[in-house]
Amino acid sequence: MDPQQPTDRRPASAFVVFLILMSGWFALKTCRKEVAPQPQPAAMAPAEAPANPQGAAPAGATATAPVPAAPSRYPATKDVALDDAIVVDTDSFRARFSNHGAVLVELLLKHYFRKPGDGDDEAKRADPANWLPLVMPHDPKALTFRLIHNARAAGSAALPLDDANWTVERSDVGGAPRLIFKLDDGDGRHFEKEFAFRHDGYFFDVELRFSSVRPDAAQGVSSYGFVAAGGIWNEHNSKWAKPPAAVISAESVDQVQLLDSKGLHDGPQSRAIRREELAPFFGARSNFFGFVLSPDAATTGYVDTVTCSRVLDPYRYAEERERRLAGRPELTAEETTALRDESYSNVRAEPFLKVPFPAAGAAPLALRFTAFAGPRGPEAMAAPEGAPFRILYEIEYGGWTSFRWINRLLLGWMGLLERLTGNWGVAIILLTVTVKALLFPLNRMQSRTMEQFQKKMKLLQPQIEEIKKRHKNNAQKAGLEQQKLMREHGVRPPFFGCLVLFLQMPVWYGVFQIMSSAPSLRHQPFFGWISDLSAPDVVPLPFQLPMIGTLHLLPILMLVAWLLQNRMMPKPVDPQQAQMQKMMNFFPFIFLFMLYGYASGQSLYMVTNSLLGMVQMKWLRVTPSN
């Protein structure tokens, strides 16, 4: 190529613009503070109870003498022994309830595990200690399915619904377990909570029943808080892992409302749950999992709003406290205060129920919900009852609505490749090969078109030189004259470089979304030190690296491959294009900084993409044009 001939700057310019936009987007994402992976301590409560937790009375408040309870005319459910080991087993999970408040204390997913590799060992796979605790014992006042009478009068003789032992009945319906908790509050009201489970799948039914033996014809409307989710497994397995968030359906079926602990730092927030076309839902979601409830059509009118608030995460508290105490006798007051605040990193979703209590002898008012407790993936939500919840994976596999079908197509193709090869890492490599193969005709056309363009430009070179001499003191005028000459001879720079670049953008974005939210990739190994494609690869070293700490090798290989690919590009003589190419050499370092703690599957895709790009560039250079 002649040093003086013009070069096509549009593909490079488009690439730089794309990288700048992506860098800005990544920079916004990195504003979220990185935290350590979720621990699995033996103790279920922190070593120290946080001072003045949310909802506690402020310091210095004057205690009010209790109002003497009025004698009750109705029998109450009393003298019931505490039982907090009411266990229900299905093929998919094990649930543990307590009759103290009739609450769900813990729910373990049997096919998902706390640590990578536990599912590959038969003994560990069968041990409940290794099953993933989707619902954990958090704040006792935030336990899931807790029912609170918001307007219970001070000094009332009625038993508090959340602080009394309910009776429990167990049964099997067609071999599927069922629990019914019952309580008479001593003020003429009768309450029931029924949990009907299924043999398999991640759905179960929840029904609340309200009835009365009070003779009053008009019972009025009572307000109850019902904890739909009192915390969820908090899995920070990578830099980009999403924190637990309260999730509520929105008016549009393509949107959800999310409130994480940072958004709730200044206090609880309430959201309406109206939804068009599909049933609404509310609950909590984490990186790969969800615990949500959807009221049926008859119940929706009794559910007003959902209040979301922060709750203490005892796992986070215990792990962080142990880590910060390493080699020290105690934390300072400032460190303890900061740790307590950070430990409110989980969420509670509490819908408010407006209950018109039936009069004596009337049929109970039944509020029915479908609960989903499992991975936020298409397979888990394939059943008809999963329709209201499917946005929980659709929105994660494509934040841009128009690209969701591309992301689902990518994940489906990767799943097919994984079934053929038995390895998700190989599937990622083959996905990269597939994308390169599909785009190869355009890359080849670009190469051939550029070659023809250069030949035509060579013929015009004498006239271009004449223009430059004639307007040597006016570069702008020279450029306009050169463009006019090229138009007159039908010479136009090829545009395929921009097209190829922008066709790859949805794929890059889709892979990024899939690696951070597809449950099928969680804890999936590749080979060697790469034990979890949804988390950063960790090279096992007996020491920590200065300023880096843990060594993640794949992002470094990504940097090297990208720099080698840049070096293989033709050296531009044009000053502006040369400056642009120098700028592009800095982007690999920027991406290394941003993606160093991200999922290893993303780095594997980018390393493979760069290696294939180098092979493609080499092949196109040595292959003669037709």
Describe the structure in your own words.
The chain is α+β, with helices and mostly antiparallel strands and 626 residues long. The chain is 34% helix and 20% strand. The strands form three sheets. The chain has a nine-stranded antiparallel β-sheet. Strands 5-10-17-16-13 form a five-stranded antiparallel β-sheet, with no helix packed on it. It is elongated and about 110 Å long. A hairpin with a 3-residue loop joins β14 (282-285) and β15. It has two domains: 86-310 and 340-396, Distorted Sandwich (Beta-galactosidase, Chain A, domain 5), CATH 2.70.98; 420-622, no CATH class. The protein contains 14 helices and 18 strands.
Number of separate helices: 14
CATH architecture group name of the largest domain: Distorted Sandwich
Query: Biggest sheet: strands side by side, in what order?
Result: 6-7-8-9-18-15-14-11-12
CATH fold group of the largest domain: Beta-galactosidase, Chain A, domain 5
User: What's the CATH first level of the largest domain?
Assistant: Mainly Beta
- Average pLDDT, all residues: 81
Q: Return Rg in Å.
A: 31 Å
- The figure for the number of domains is 2
